[in-house]
Design a protein that fits this description.
Layout lengths: L2 H16 L3 H7 E8 L6 E2 H7 L7 E12 L2 E10 L3 E12 L2 E8 L3 E3 L2 E3 L4
Parallel strand pairs: 1-6
Antiparallel strand pairs: 1-2, 3-4, 4-5, 5-6, 5-7, 7-8
């Protein structure tokens, strides 16, 4: 896939999250999809949807700030603002295979509530 196709896939994935379109997200992932965060290590697709899928009604807005694509890999940095005033910035590393997303590794950024830093539980 081209750099443009990977970038478009990322935009569509984030739009599907915001629209709570679980089917679109499921379809974007390969059957052997893996997801890693500081809380989960290479969990599979079924476990991802069991543990991590949330309705996005708590999000006021989400802004993709930077997408860097090289070959079949990409880094995405985004800012998310919750309706309760909390905001955070994360970076995700994507791996693509066969026109779908094979892996996402999430790196959490700092969280803020009404402009003040909020320490997160370990």
């Amino acid at each position: 896939m081209s750099r443009t196709a990977h970038t478009e896939m990322i935009w569509k994935l984030f739009a599907a999250y915001m629209a709570n379109d679980r089917k679109a997200v499921e379809d974007a992932f390969t059957d052997d999809f893996r997801f890693t965060t500081p809380y989960d290590d290479a969990i599979d697709k079924a476990t991802y949807f069991e543990r991590c899928w949330r309705v996005s009604d708590w999000i006021e807005r989400q802004q993709l700030e930077k997408i860097l694509v090289e070959g079949d890999e990409a880094f995405v940095t985004y800012r998310c603002v919750a309706k309760d005033g909390k905001d955070f910035r994360n970076t995700e590393f994507f791996v693509f295979e066969g026109g779908r997303i094979k892996r996402i590794d999430v790196y959490f950024g700092a969280a803020y509530q009404n402009g003040a830093f909020v320490s997160q539980p370990r």
